[in-house]
Every structure is written in C-alpha cells, then in structure tokens.
Amino acid sequence: MIAAGASIVAAGLAWSSSRKATGGAREIADRNHQVARLDREAEQLRADFSAFVVATGLAHDAQGQSCLIAADLVLGANPRCGEALRHAADEYTQTITTALKTLDGRSGTMPVEWHFEALRAGFVESMAQITVERSLVLAGQPPEHAAG
Q1: Of 3, 6, 40, 102, which is least packed with CB atoms within 10 Å of its CB?
Q2: How far from 69 is each of 79, 90, 92, 128, CA to CA, in Å?
Q3: pTM of the entire predicted model
C-alpha cells in the first residue's frame, strides 16, 4: 500500500515536472521568436534608411527625384520608422524637390547638414525603441510596442 502511494506521488511529480519543463521551453521559444522578429524589423529599418540616404545622393534630376520620393515613401511606410525620422525624411525630400524645381536645371547648392542631423537623430531614436523592446523581451517583460 505504501509502495503504491509512493508510486502515485512519484507519477504526479513527474507529470508536474514535465508540464513545467514544457511550459518553460515554450516560453523560451516564444521569447526567441520575439527577439528574432525585432532583429528582422531593425534590419529592415536599417535597409530602408540606407536606401533613403543613397537616394539623397541621386536626386540631381527628375529620375533621381523620383528615386528619392520612392525611398521616402518606403521609409515612411516602415512600421518601425518613428515620427521624428518620418518627419525629417519628408522634410528633406520636400526641400530637395522644391529646390530642384526652383533651380530649373541651373547649378546651385544648398546646406543640408542640419537635415542629415535630423535624419540621423530620428534613425537613432527609432532604433533605440527597438532596442528597448528587445531588452524587455529578454527580461521576460512584454514589449510596449505592438508590432504587426
């Protein structure tokens, strides 16, 4: 009778341990998937920002302006593009396209340093948000941003 009771208790403990291990493994897998998703989102934001910066150097004519406008739209459509980055990219694109229309094929220059500083700051802010969310996920806390 005692052996049967001990056997039942042992089976119960084994079942409980198995459930806890399965739950722990599921939590680890879920956390790994969330981190991988955030890493993919960060990489996509880097690629979209890089494409925008490259397009800024091509905006000398109508075709280059079209490339810049397209890169601006893609960057702005990225769900990880923060408001500061979106605003800086839109403002730069508008400034360049307006200046080129005003020059009407003539040569000219314009200072763009502050535009690039605003773009850089917006990009850093957007990436920092992803980094914070990644840290929260790794710490086992729910991230604040609900990514699609």
Answers
A1: 3
A2: 18, 9, 10, 26
A3: 0.75
